[in-house]
Amino acid sequence: MLALRRWSVRNAGLHARAYRLLQPVLEALRPLFRAFGYARVEKPVAVIEAALKGLFFDCSMCGYCLLSANGMACPMNCPKSVRNGPCGGVRADGGCEVKPEMQCVWVEGWRGIQHIKGATFPLLPNAPASARNAGTSSWLRMARGEHTPPPICGAPAKATDSELERVLAAGTFAVTAEFSPPDSADPADVFAQLAHFRGQVDAINVTDGSGANCHMSSLGVSALLLQAGFEPVMQITCRDRNRIGIQGDILGAAALGIRNLLCLTGDSTVVGDHPDAKPVFDLDSMSLLQTARIMRDEGRFLSGRKLNGVPRLYLGGADNPFAPPFEMRPLRLARKIAAGAQFVQTQYCFDLDLLESYMARVRDEGLHERCRILIGVGPIASAKTARWLRSKVPGVHIPDALIARLEGATDPRAEGRRICVEMIQAIRRIRGVAGVHIMAPRQDQFIPELVRDSGVLGGRRPGPLPATAGKAAASSPTLSPER
Ligand code: SF4
Does residue 332 line the site of ligand 1, with CB under 6 A? Predict the structure, then answer.
C-alpha cells in the first residue's frame, strides 16, 4: 500500500489531471443523482470511492478530500491528523515525527505539488475535518458543488491589552522564556520556580503537557503567573481536547486575564508518559488559531453560536525553520498568519545559516511585518545532550561543528551557555527578528546569566504586570463582540 501511495505522489500530475476530468463528469451527473436522491446513491458511490482512493492514496474517507490541495498525498495519513502541515517535528530525512518509517505526508505532498503543472502550495488554511462527514463521499459533495468548506479567516486583529503585544508593537527586541509546570497541586511549587524569571523576560510560556507528559495544566499555571505579576503565554494543544473543550478553555483563560495564547498541535501521545492515552487532534494548530481568531474577531463559536463576551487574546503559533522541507517553511508561516498568528516562536536555533536563508525569504514576502518572529534558543549542557536532542527530539537540528565544540570544551556546560549567548547576539542582528525565546528546561537558574551576558535587554528591565492586570480583565468579561 505504501509503495502504491508513493507511486501516486510521484505521478501526482497524472492523478491531478484525472481529478480535473472527474469534476465536470460529476457535475454532469448531478441531475441523475438528484433524480435518484443523494441519500440513496451515497452508499454505493462511497463504496466505489473508498475502494479506488484507498488503493491509490490510503484514503480514510474524511469526507472533505484535500488530495488535490496536497500534491495527491492524503493528509489524513498523518498520525496527528494535521490538515495544515507539516508539523515542526519532521525528521532530517523527511521522516514522520511519530512514525519514522514513513515519510511525512506533507513532505510527500510538497514533492507531489512539484509534479503538478501550475500547482502551488495553498496559502489559505484548510478548515478542520468534520467528524459528522467521516465515511461520506467527497465525490458527491463535488457533484453538489460543495467540495470543500471555505477556509475560515476572520477580520484583521485589533490590539489587545497584552503586555507582550505592546512590547513587540513598540519594536522592542523581546525576550520570552519557557516554564515547565510542576507535577504538583501546590501553587508554592510554581512560585518557587519564578525567581529566575523576574526582571529578565517580557513573558513566560507555560507548556501544555509538553512531550505528551502530564503536569499541572497550562491554564492553572498561567493564572498563578498572573497572580505573581508575570505575563503568561498560555500554550494550548489539540492533543487532549476537542473543539468543545478547547473553546471552553479559551473563554476561561480570557476570563482569568490571560492575554496571550500559543496554539499548538501538540506532541504525539506515544512519546509521553501515557502512551495508552487516546489522542484527540480534532483540530490542528492552524484550525485552532482560526477558532480563537473567530471567537475574538467575530464574537462567535466555531459552530456559529454567538458569544456574549469575546476573549481578548494576542494569538501566536510555533514555527520551525530548521526542519524540512525548508523551501516550504516560509509558505507555511504565511498560511499560519492567514489563520491568525500575530507572533510565532520557533524551535531551537543552532544553525545561523539556515536561519539567515529562512529570514531572507520571510523578508522578501514581507511576513515579518505581519507577524512578530521570536527565535528559540537554549543552552546545551554537553555533547551527549546535543546528540540526544538531535536524535530523540524530532525537528531539532544541531550541526556537527557545534557538537564538536562542546566535545572539545573543558567545561561543556559553560561552553553551552557561551554558545547560547553568541547565538542570541547573532540573532539580534538579523533583520526581521523580533525577539528570542529561551528554552532552558532544568537550567532556569541560568536565564539571568544568559540575558545579562548577551546584553539582549539593552539595559531595560521588564517590569511586573500591574497588580490589577488579571483582576481587571476578570471583572469586565462582557466586552462587546463588535470590537
Ligand atoms: S511529521 Fe508531523 S505532519 Fe508530518 S506526517 Fe508526521 S505527524 Fe504528520
Answer: no
